[in-house]
Amino acid sequence: MNRHELLARLHEDLQPRTYLETGINTGRSLSLSRASSVGIDPEFSITEEVQADVHLARTSSDEFFARRRPLAHLPVPVVDLAFVDGMHLAEYALRDVVAVERFTSATSVLVIDDVLPRKVVMANRKRSTTRWTGDVYKATAALRTLRPDLVVVEIDTQPTGTCVLMLPDAARGGVLPGYDDWVATTAVLPDPQDVPAEVLQRTRAMAPEEFLAAVDWTRWRRARQQGEGLAGARTLLEDLIRKNDELTSRVAPGA
To answer: Does 254 reside within a domain?
Structure first.
């Protein structure tokens, strides 16, 4: 299953009222949405047919989220499903996640692209390959460390892997303690990057089919309709959390 097939399934299973995407490029992933949508990209050039009611913002995500009412276009100021696929640098991806989280509910789902490079050179901060992830993989590790309350699931999608985040907390107000230290000590480092073996070998990544089957999406949608809080939503993810914990405890061969 590739990233667009995973997104299509999430649109189908989650049935989001709203969708937001950073890094829309030609609009291929945006074209999957039938919900009221927001697309952010300073240099988009859409060639796909987009069938959603969409606000296209030709700007950076930092500028967009600094606006007084960035989600004024949406029927509700809540992002049910988000896809972060902008700058292929860890600090930008993490900043996008934190910005989107301000506008989430407990049942919102966030997806980060390009978190599982196959080769070290693909993870360079300066692009030198046709297929390039940058060092976005670092954002996954940072979220596990700085936000242990989140459910962070690496997904073995083709070609460059995705990460699904569940149980976001809008009450944090877009603040991530430890972000500046993480940028200074871990995010911005010279190439080549020290990519962990478990990232390159995908030993902690869940098969997309297994991830989708581990969530009762009918109950998840009902929880959204009922305004379920974080504690209640977490009880619906017990199977997913157990399987993910088993994966993240694995050590890659040769590591």
So the answer is: no
Q: Compute φ and ψ for 110, nearest 5 degrees.
A: -115, 135
Cis link prior to 192 (omega < 30° from 0)? yes
Reduce the secondary structure of 110-131 to three states and give it as a string.
Answer: EEEECCCCCCHHHHCCCCCCCC
191 assigned to some structural domain: yes
Domain total in the chain: 1
Q: What is the pLDDT along the chain (255 residues), one digit of tens a residue?
A: 999 999 999 999 999 999 999 999 999 999 999 999 999 999 999 999 999 999 999 999 999 999 999 999 999 999 999 999 999 999 999 999 999 999 999 999 999 999 999 999 999 999 999 999 999 999 999 999 999 999 999 999 999 999 999 999 999 999 999 999 999 999 999 999 999 999 999 999 999 999 999 999 999 999 999 999 999 999 999 999 999 999 998 877 876
Considering the domain boundaries, does residue 197 fall inside one?
yes
* The token pair that represents 67 in the structure block: 């606006």
Distance, in Å, from the CA atom of 76 to the CA atom of 193, rounded to the nearest integer, reads: 41
**Full domain range(s) for residue 117:** 3-248
In a domain, 105, yes or no: yes
d(CA 77, CA 132): 33
Residue 254: CB atoms within 10 A of its CB come to 6
Residue of 123, 143, 121, 127 whose CA lies nearest to 135: 123
Kindly report the CATH number assigned to the domain that includes residue 177.
3.40.50.150
Using a 10 angstrom Cβ sphere, with 0-12 exposed, 13-18 middle and 19 or more buried, the burial of residue 35 is buried
